[in-house]
Fold:
Amino acid sequence: MIQVKNLSVHYPDTKVKALTNISLSLEKGDFVCVLGKSGAGKSTFIRCLNGLQKPTSGEIYFDGNDIAAHSEEKLRKVRREAGMIFQHFSLVPRLSVMQNVLTGMFGYRSSFKNLIGWFTTEEIVFAKKVIADVGLSEMTYRKVEQLSGGQKQRVGIARALAQQPKVLLGDEPVASLDPGTSNHIFTLLTEMHERLDLLTIINVHDIELAKRYASRILALKDGKLIFDGPPGNFTDEMYQETYTAQPHPSYFDAGI
Ligand SMILES: Nc1ncnc2c1ncn2[C@@H]1O[C@H](COP(=O)(O)OP(=O)(O)OP(=O)(O)O)[C@@H](O)[C@H]1O
Structure:
C-alpha cells in the first residue's frame, strides 16, 4: 500500500539529517509501531507518509502513485485517505464532539459547504456512528474542552475515522495520557484497525505498548532504520541499541 524508497529528509535551517535512506513497504493489515528516542526522526517519517513533509530525496508511493510528484489536489486525496491522530489532539476545544468529528469529512466536501458548515443527514448519521464506535455517544454534543485527555483522544480517533481512511497515522497519540488510558486507546485503535482493515502506523515511546499491540516494529536511530520486524524479534539488545544515548551526529554537522 505504501512503498518508501531511499527516503531522506535534511532540514536546511538546522542542517539536521532527520531521515537517511529509508526503504520499506507497508501493507494493509500491518499494525506498525515506530520506536526511537527523541529526535530519532519518528515525526518526520509519519509526516512524510501523508505528504506534510517533502523528502529531500527518495520516493514514497501511496497505492502506486509517487506522493512527491503529486499536485496539491492529488495530495489532498492522499491526506484524506490517511487519517491522523496527534499527541495534543489538535481538536477545537470550544466546539462539540460532533462538530469536531464532522471536520474529518472536510476533505470530501466543497470549500463552500465547509465554510457555511452545512452537513447532510447522511453525514450526521455517519458522524454519530463513528462517535458511537469510540464509545462517546453520551457526549456527542458536549464541548471538547469539558472532556478528559483519554476522551479527547477518542474524539481525535473518531475524527480520523470520519475521513474513511485507508491508513491511520498516529504521532505519539498516547504520550500525554496515563498508562491505563493509553492501553484503552491502543485497544480501541486495534479494534478499529481490524474492523476497517486498515494500515496503522503509530509513533510511540512506550516499548511495552509497542510489544503488546504491534504486528510490526520499526526502530529509528539518528534517522536510520535499524530494525524492521515482528515484536518477538525486538530483543533487549535491540532495545539498548535503539535507546543508547549518543549525541545525534548531525548536531556536529550543524555545529551545535
Ligand atoms: N521543522 C524542522 N526544522 C528543522 N529541524 C527539524 C524540524 N523538525 C524536526 N527537526 C529535527 O529533526 C530531527 C528529527 O525530529 P523528529 O521530530 O522527526 O524526531 P522524533 O523522533 O519525532 O522526536 P520526538 O520523539 O522528540 O518527537 C531532530 O533533530 C529535530 O530537531
Observations:
- Strands lie at 2-11, 16-26, 31-35, 57-62, 65-66, 82-86, 167-171, 199-203, 216-221, 224-229.
- Residues 30 and 199 are 5 Å apart (CA to CA).
- The chain has a mean pLDDT of 90.
